[in-house]
Each structure stands twice: as C-alpha cells, then as structure tokens.
Design brief:
alpha/beta, binds nicotinamide-adenine-dinucleotide, binds zinc ion
Length: 396
C-alpha cells in the first residue's frame, strides 16, 4: 500500500510500505477515509521529537471504514464507519479506569524512552515516533487499530466524514484542555493559538459555560475562522500587548483559565524569540515556551494555566516565581480522547460542534509532501491539510 513517510528533518515522501495485518484479537484494520495533518506532526518534521526512524508512516488524526476485525472485537464489524482516537489505550489499566487514557500503561509497547525522558512511560500514539510506541500512522491506505473496542467510535449517520475526522484529535484535545482546566460557567478563558486545537479548546470552553473566550494568534485567516465558526473573540498578538489587553478585558484581573495551544515551536515578536530559537536549535533547550510564559503572566491570581501544546523536554526562563506567588494551577495533558469523543460526536450530530472549516486543503495521498509544506508554512490559508488515501471521504 501507499503511505506518507518521515524521511528526516523537514522531509516527507510517498512510498510503498507493507500492508498492516491483524496482530492481536482486539485489532481492526481500517480502510482510511480521511486523515489530517496536526501541529504535533510539525514537531516531528522539525526533528524535535526523539526516536523517529526514516520510513515511519506519519498521521494520527483519521476516520474510515472497518475492513477487517480481530476475533476478540465486539463493537465493530466490517463496513462500519468509525473515527479513531489518536491515542492507543487498553481500557483496563489503572490509568484507563481513571479516565486518564493517554497515560495508559499498556498502549505503548516501548515505554523505556519516555521513562528516561520524563520519569514515567506514557501511552502510545499512531505515527508518533518509537518513543510513543512506534505504531504505523494513518497517512496510508490502511492502518491497524489496536484495542479497537476502546479506541474506535461509530460515527452517527448525520455526521459527515470531514466533520467526524476531527473527533479523532483536534476536538478531543480542545475538550481535554477546557475540561481538565476546570472551565466553569461565567469564566473568562484565553486560548493561545488559533489552529485546530486552539479553536476546539475555545469551542469546548464555550460549551462548558465560559462567559467570554478570547483566542490569540497572528494569522488573520485563522482569527477570522474563530470569529465566524467558533463564535469567540480574537486578539492579534502582533498588534497589541496580549497581557495588557487581557487585563483590560477583565477589569484588571486577567482570565480565569489560560489554555496554551501553541507548543514547543511558538513564535513571538519579542527579543526573547531569537534567544529561545538559538537555544532550541543548538539543543540547549528543547522547547520555545513563549506562549506559556505569556499565559502565566496574563492569568488571574489563583487561576489555571493549561498546556495543550506539545513540549518535549526542558525550557529556559520559566516564570516559576509567578506560578508560585500568584497561586496558579499549572497543568497539561496529551488528550484523553476516549473520555470525550462520545460527547463530541453527539455535539457534531446536533451541530453545536462544527469542524469542517478546518479542512482548508484536501489532497490525494500522493501529494503528501505538498500538503505538509502548505501546512508548515501556513501558506494559502492552510489550517489543516487532509489526505484521501483511498480517494474518498463522504462530502459534507
Ligand atoms: N495535547 C494533545 O493531546 C495535543 C493534540 C494535538 C495537538 N497538540 C499540540 O497542540 C499545538 C497546536 O496544534 P495545532 O494543530 O492547532 O497547530 P497549528 O500549528 O495549526 O497551530 C498553532 C498556532 O499557534 C500560533 N502561535 C504561534 N506562536 C504563538 C504565540 N506566541 N501566541 C499565540 N499563538 C501563537 C500559530 O500562529 C498557529 O496558528 C501543537 O503544539 C500540537 O503539537 C497537542
Ligand atoms: Zn495531533
Ligand atoms: Zn490502559
């Protein structure tokens, strides 16, 4: 079969790889309908995530049709239309039973790397390096889905493919941030980053009752999407002082919840950007924490700062003094999608969660490198490149 593979820093290719096979009784093989790029893939392309190997199949946001089922699968049959959570979780370990699905003790067959990096192994993810399990990704004609009864979800008939696609990763990630940051009715929430993840965090915050939600970015087309499709307020950080503006909006207090949906390759106009970039490229720090710093300074005393953006390791100039003295709660997570996907699919069915505008560019799998270039450069208004490995995907 054909797949989009990682071929080294900033290089992808389309090549022929082995077809996946059922390896365990709880597996299904999925014929991929649609599969999208995610900001997390940019960190792989940038070479900032360890343990990628040339030839690894990329992609972790996907939906499709069940092509084969293992003998132990109970919930799915051949022909079913499903969306699959980007994290791989067993449903039985302590973490899964406590709804911390991306921390699953069994989803990642290769926990030693993250044990060394972070003190504990974390769960597995499709197409996301050997540190997260070495699973083949979804930018391919077919993908093996382990623990399919847990990770694959039937798509309601009313939900078109292109909307359901984002119930795999962007929407449950946004929901994880808003829910785990404990957004309360009446809260003011600020979200850094107007990509798929930031937009979905904003929407989830609104659905959890936030009174005002403000999304921060510099790309006009993304901020326009926020205003039009999400219904949140926007701030362009190149035009204003974000911290001052957020204080102004909240009577001097600052937002109750600050969600960072930017990650380790944050951009900034600040002189510290150059400093962070040089240190990151010389590997003196692994991550550029620009937006996290800003979120910490902006947050109201006693508020919560949540990092949804992916960070790999160490950062410099981290305002720990502000965290401590302002009594902030600082949290982060990879998405616990298994917990939120049923609620999200229901929201997609009723129309309160709409995601199809994120799919700005739809391409055949053969145009993988072009799709990644567009997504990385954010040229031509690209928010997500979506591939159709089998030529399909039901139109909206
Ligand atoms: N926690 C999870 O489970 C999970 C899941 C998916 C993605 N992610 C991470 O979430 C982050 C966002 O993903 P995405 O797909 O939306 O990415 P994306 O690249 O499409 O969007 C990131 C946005 O952040 C903006 N940005 C950069 N610097 C900024 C700054 N200083 N202030 C405000 N905005 C800034 C960019 O302009 C861009 O629009 C990435 O780090 C990704 O790895 C995490
Ligand atoms: Zn992702
Ligand atoms: Zn588990």
């Amino acid at each position: 079969m054909k797949a989009i593979t990682w071929r080294g820093v900033n290089k992808t290719a389309v090549e022929t790889v082995d077809d996946p096979r059922i390896l365990n009784s709880h597996d299904i093989i999925l014929e991929v309908g649609l599969t999208a790029t995610c900001g997390s893939d940019l960190h792989l392309l940038g070479g900032y995530i360890p343990a990628m190997r040339a030839g690894d199949v990329l992609g972790h946001e996907f939906m499709g049709t069940v092509a084969e089922v293992g003998s132990g699968v109970r919930k799915h049959k051949v022909g079913d239309r499903v969306v699959v959570c980007s994290f791989i979780s067993c449903g039985r370990c302590w973490y899964c039973r406590n709804e911390l699905w991306s921390l699953c003790d069994n989803g990642n067959p290769n926990p030693a790397i993250t044990e060394g990096l972070w003190g504990s192994g974390v769960g597995g993810c499709y197409g996301y390096s050997h540190a997260l399990g070495g699973f083949a990704g979804s930018h391919a004609n077919h993908v093996r889905v382990p623990y399919a009864d847990q990770g694959a979800f039937a798509i309601p008939d009313e939900v078109p493919d292109v909307r359901a696609l984002f119930a795999s990763d962007a929407a449950p990630t946004g929901w994880t941030g808003a829910h785990q940051a404990e957004v309360q009715p009446g809260d003011v929430v600020a979200v850094w980053g107007a990509g798929g993840v930031g937009q979905m965090a904003a929407r989830a915050s609104m659905l959890l009752g936030a009174e005002r939600v403000v999304v921060i970015d510099r790309f006009e087309n993304r901020l326009a999407q926020v205003a039009q499709h999400i219904g949140a307020e926007t701030l362009d950080y190149t035009q204003t002082s974000v911290v001052a503006e957020l204080k102004e909006l909240t009577g001097g207090r600052g937002p109750d919840v600050c969600i960072e949906a930017v990650g380790m390759e944050a951009h900034s106009n600040d002189p510290s950007f150059l400093y962070d970039q040089v240190k990151q490229q010389l590997r003196l720090q692994t991550d550029r924490p620009t937006a996290v710093r800003e979120a910490i300074y902006a947050c109201r005393k006693g508020g919560t700062v949540f990092t949804l953006g992916v960070f790999a390791g160490l950062v410099d100039k981290f305002p720990l003094g502000a965290v401590m003295n302002k009594s902030l709660t600082l949290r982060g997570a990879q998405q616990h999608g298994h917990r939120y996907i049923p609620r999200i699919l229901e929201g997609m069915r009723t129309g309160e969660i709409r995601t199809e505008h994120l799919a700005t560019h739809t391409l055949p799998l053969e145009e993988g490198p072009k799709g990644y270039d567009l997504f990385k450069s954010k040229e031509d208004g690209c928010v997500r490149a979506v591939f159709q490995p089998n030529g399909g995907g039901r139109p909206s």
